[in-house]
Every structure is written in structure tokens, then in C-alpha cells.
Write a structure and sequence with these properties.
Aminopeptidase; 14 strands; Alpha-Beta Plaits; four-stranded antiparallel β-sheet; eight-stranded mixed β-sheet; alpha/beta; 2 domains
């Protein structure tokens, strides 16, 4: 329950806006024991709209797990009656989502100026990318790799000392709009990198030997929308032909087994894969950059929230990459170091067997782009990233140690 309360603080901290409200909405946790329970949940989703939090959709539910989902106030009676009638064990994790969001309006989670300990809106983050670059010209440079559907620039920061032919690590944040802690992590990581260079030996060695490409927010349009209209928005904000439903799940828009198991072809679903692979301008810009820089990029990290997990390919199914033993050993070492230093427990392993199957994600796509022709690692990190202290949520330093352990493995 503590982990869930942390999640609520992180993923549901509401912005000051006059958009969609959640008064009377509930969040349920259901115990799933067998295939019959899974079929019942699928039946439930066919009669009522369910916002899945864990996993992303009913397609990804596995036996012997728990499922968390958000239900609108007008559907609560029907959903609870269905669960009771079918003897599905459940608990109500949040009895009034609107109250939780409203209570956080005065929690100090927000700030008018940039802060590394509070959430920042896109305008503030955009200004920060320029400021961090101008203040650290020997370590940070900024480029634009594309634009979003709404015309916002997609900024990429390159962090590292000057030098030719340096291997690079690519890190992105802000794929799913409502996962605010993800962009906060990328900002915090850049600050830590430039702030400790020259005084901390490990970070100094990393920046001398490696370049870090850091993409603070990919799904900028969706992120802006969570600040202005709907805190729980997840997808992009692109229009879809033939429907009023907006957006695509960028995580399912890549060309690695596009729109296969785990993705939806319904534009109204949260896991909609788009009209074609890389149909989203954001996804295409990212994939193009990776393709253009494959010779230097040796590892890819994508930062999400919810759970404490460190995942590597593949997520679309149970097939293992050729270097599975090496990936597993590296993940094991990093997770054990975290546990020793901070007592935190991360789960690690291939995406499909560790969390769920049928989730095509960036780590899979990077594997496909690379062709596995040289030593290259792809990781999807689901962080334990925040703690509530005096009403504010902030990123803990322990997560950068996880990344540091990964980088150490890449350099040896």
C-alpha cells in the first residue's frame, strides 16, 4: 500500500486547471487468480470504460497478479456490482480521486519558477533547457530533433565533455503525459551530472568517456494538456481520421512488431497504436535520431513511473535477446547495489516475463533498429522515484545510482 500511496503522490498530483474533474471517481485493485478472472475483466471493459493503471490495458493482464484501474463516478455502481456478482476479490484504493487531487492543489507540488524538487510545466522546462546549456557551455549543448503535432520543439540535450567518437547513452523521459516524475528525473539527472563534474570522480569519468543524450520530454503536447485540461491524459494530442478521439500511445507507435499483441487499433483506447508505425511526429523524430546515431549510441534508457522495475528486451513476447545472460547479470548487479546502499528493492528482467507480455516498447524498437550487430543495451526503467515530505514530492538520488551502475557495466 505504501508504494501505491507514493504512486498517487507522483502520478496524480493535480495542476491548477479548469478541465476534466474526477470528483467521486474511484480506483480499484482486483486480485486476478486465473484465466476466468481475466475473461471477466475483459467482459467488464466491454460494458464500461476502464482506465487501467497497472497494467496498461486488459490485454496485458496475467494470472496471479493484481490489477489497478480507475473508474468514473457514474460507472462505480455497475463496476462494483459486477465484481461482487462474479466473486472477484477487490479493494478500493482511492475512494474519491477528485478529493485526492484537490488536496494536492495546496501541497506545494508546483512552482512558478524552475525547481528540481517540484514539478515544472512545459514552458518552464523549455526555458530550463536553454538556461542549463548557457550556464554549462563546456558540458551541455541543445538541439532540436523535430516538432510535435502542435508544433512544439522537441529539445535534446547532449551532456559530456568535448571529444570525437565518444560512445553515447540515450535517455528519454515524458513518453506518457501523466507520468510527471519522468521529465522531473531527466532534469534532475542533468543537474546532477553537470553539478558534480570535476568534484565527484565517478560522474567525472562518465562525462569524460561518454556522451549522454537526454530528451527531457517527448510527448510535449500531452504533457501540456495534463497541466491545462486533464491531469490523467496519457497519449499524444494528434487527431485521428474518422473519429473525435484524440491521440496515440507513443510507446506503441514504433516499428518493432507494430500494433501486435498488447496494442489497440481503436483510436479511443489508451493503447492505440496509431494509423501506421511512426505515424506520430514525436515517435518518428526519436526513431530517426536513433537511426542516424546508431554507430555511437551504446545504450538506451527510457524512464517511466509506476513500480520499481528495471526491464530489458523483449516486451512483445517471451523470446530472449541473444545477450540475455549479459543483460541479466548487469541488471542484477545494479539492483543488488541499490539494495545494499539504500534498501530499495527493484524487480528486473525481460519485459514480457517480468511485468507482462504484449507491450511493444521503446526498448524493443531500439533492439530492432540496432539489428544487434554490436554491443548495445536497451532498458526501460520504472522508478521508485518520489517521496512525500512536507507536502512536496521530489526525486530521490538513489535512482541515479542505478543508472551509474549501468554505465559502469558499459565501460568495463
Amino acid at each position: 500500500m505504501l508504494a501505491f500511496l507514493i504512486l498517487v503522490t507522483v502520478i496524480l498530483a493535480s495542476a491548477h486547471h479548469s478541465g476534466e474533474h474526477f470528483e467521486g471517481d474511484k480506483v480499484f485493485r482486483v486480485n486476478v487468480e486465473d484465466e476466468n478472472h481475466i475473461n471477466l475483466l475483459r467482459e467488464l471493459t466491454s460494458i464500461r470504460q476502464i482506465d487501467f493503471w497497472k497494467p496498461d490495458s486488459v490485454i496485458q493482464v496475467n494470472p496471479h497478479t493484481t490489477v489497478d484501474f480507475h473508474v468514473k463516478a457514474e460507472d462505480i455502481f455497475t463496476v462494483e456490482d459486477f465484481l461482487k456478482q462474479n466473486e472477484l476479490q477487490y479493494e478500493v484504493l482511492i475512494s474519491n480521486l477528485g478529493s485526492v487531487l484537490e488536496a494536492q492543489l495546496d501541497s506545494g507540488v508546483y512552482t512558478t519558477g524552475h525547481s528540481y524538487e517540484k514539478y515544472n510545466d512545459w514552458e518552464t522546462i523549455e526555458a530550463w533547457t536553454q538556461q542549463i546549456t548557457s550556464e554549462n557551455p563546456d558540458l551541455v549543448s541543445r538541439s532540436v530533433i523535430g516538432t510535435t503535432f502542435s508544433g512544439n520543439n522537441i529539445y535534446l540535450l547532449k551532456v559530456g565533455t568535448s571529444g570525437s567518437n565518444k560512445p553515447a547513452i540515450f535517455m528519454d523521459c515524458g513518453f506518457h503525459a501523466r507520468e510527471w516524475i519522468s521529465p522531473a528525473f531527466c532534469q534532475w539527472f542533468v543537474r546532477e551530472a553537470v553539478g558534480t563534474y570535476g568534484s565527484e570522480s565517478h560522474m567525472t569519468e562518465l562525462l569524460d568517456k561518454l556522451d549522454f543524450y537526454v530528451l527531457p520530454v517527448l510527448n510535449i503536447d500531452g504533457y501540456i494538456y495534463t497541466w491545462t485540461k486533464n491531469r490523467m491524459w496519457r497519449k499524444t494530442r494528434s487527431t485521428n481520421a474518422g473519429t473525435t478521439c484524440i491521440g496515440t500511445d507513443p510507446n506503441r507507435n514504433f516499428d518493432a512488431r507494430w500494433c501486435s499483441m498488447g496494442a489497440s487499433q481503436n483510436p479511443c483506447d489508451e493503447t492505440y497504436c496509431g494509423s501506421a508505425a511512426e505515424s506520430e511526429k514525436e515517435t518518428k523524430a526519436l526513431a530517426d535520431f536513433i537511426r542516424d546515431n546508431l554507430s555511437s549510441i551504446k545504450a538506451y534508457l527510457t524512464i517511466h513511473s509506476y513500480s520499481q522495475m528495471m526491464l530489458y528486451p523483449y516486451s512483445y513476447g517471451y523470446v530472449l535477446p541473444k545477450d540475455n545472460k549479459e543483460l541479466n547479470a548487469l541488471a542484477k548487479a545494479a539492483v543488488e547495489e541499490l539494495a545494499t546502499l539504500h534498501g530499495t528493492k527493484y524487480t528486473y528482467g525481460p519485459g514480457a516475463s517480468t511485468i507482462l507480455s504484449g507491450m511493444i516498447s521503446q526498448d524493443d524498437d531500439t533492439e530492432a533498429l540496432s539489428g544487434r550487430t554490436e554491443r548495445r543495451f536497451s532498458w526501460l526503467n520504472r522508478l521508485q522515484v518520489a517521496r512525500a515530505t512536507s507536502g512536496s514530492s521530489y526525486l530521490q538520488g538513489k535512482d541515479t545510482l542505478l543508472l551509474g551502475a549501468l554505465m559502469t557495466g558499459l565501460m568495463t
